[in-house]
Amino acid sequence: MTAAVKSRAINSVAIGAQSISASLGNVEVLHGISLQLPLARWTSIVGPNGAGKSTLLKVLAGLLPHDGHVALLGQAMAGLPAKQRARQLSWLGQNEASADDLTAYDVAMLGRLPHQAWLAPPSSHDHAAVERALRATQAWDWRARALGQLSGGERQRVLLARALAVEAEVLLMDEPLANLDPPHQTDWLLMVRELVAAGKTVVSVLHEISFALQADELVVMAGGRVTHQGACRDAATHRALEQVFDHRIGVHDLAGQWVALPKI
Ligand SMILES: Nc1ncnc2c1ncn2[C@@H]1O[C@H](COP(=O)(O)OP(=O)(O)OP(=O)(O)O)[C@@H](O)[C@H]1O
């Protein structure tokens, strides 16, 4: 057993963050956040606009300079070679720009770059991973179409396929349901459950609170701080959610699911 795997088995932590502070445009927007995100679980990060959710996710992905310490699968993120990190951690950003001239297939193939040697052509394994990913998000039929010619939801499904094609242990997704219609939102949910059942770790920033409540764990943020972390089924988590949204929503048990409804 390698040291990293041993450490994962002992800690059961996919990502550990210690005393994270980060600034955007000379303004500190994350203030000393410490948290541990469990391995092989789905954690959703929620909170009001401007709470710092996307900024935190970028820090956890190693995409933003910060103070403090982030560990990925038991290893210090700062010390990880870029390619190793890119194989272990897959990223789907919010409103992500991508080359509109590339076909959906080629966009999904970008997810395989961390697995390929410099200038080497994709292997049969790379092609198989891309096909699996495009089929999983029902984007296979448009594989030959340019990204720029797809609707918002179709485009999002291609970008999701790119994130899946990495076949990383940890997937970070910022507003993955953006532009998806209800059936494809449900498909995303089922896909996340499959990933987690297969031992993967998923961390998502979500505004759709009823979807976020389907996760294993919830991280609640406000004002650049974590105000609560707990199981989605816990009453304390529901109260923290209602509080962070100024009691404008209520969490209810409906048909065996926890849902958030507006208080009107
Ligand atoms: N380039 C920037 N310069 C200064 N402040 C910024 C910059 N980008 C974002 N911010 C501020 O940082 C804070 C955190 O932003 P962030 O995008 O992380 O919030 P969020 O919780 O993801 O919000 P939302 O739910 O609206 O997507 C906000 O107050 C935002 O106004």
Automatic annotation (TrEMBL):
Signal peptide residues are: none
Concerning InterPro entries, the annotation shows: AAA+_ATPase (IPR003593), ABC_transporter-like_ATP-bd (IPR003439), ABC_transporter-like_CS (IPR017871), P-loop_NTPase (IPR027417)
Q: Which domain of life is it from?
A: Bacteria
Pfam families, alphabetized: ABC_tran
This chain's function reads: Part of the ABC transporter complex HmuTUV involved in hemin import. Responsible for energy coupling to the transport system.
Family matches, as SMART domains: AAA
**Family matches, as Gene3D superfamilies:** P-loop containing nucleotide triphosphate hydrolases
Instruction: Write down what this protein is called.
Output: ABC transporter ATP-binding protein
**Record-level Gene Ontology MF annotations:** ATP binding
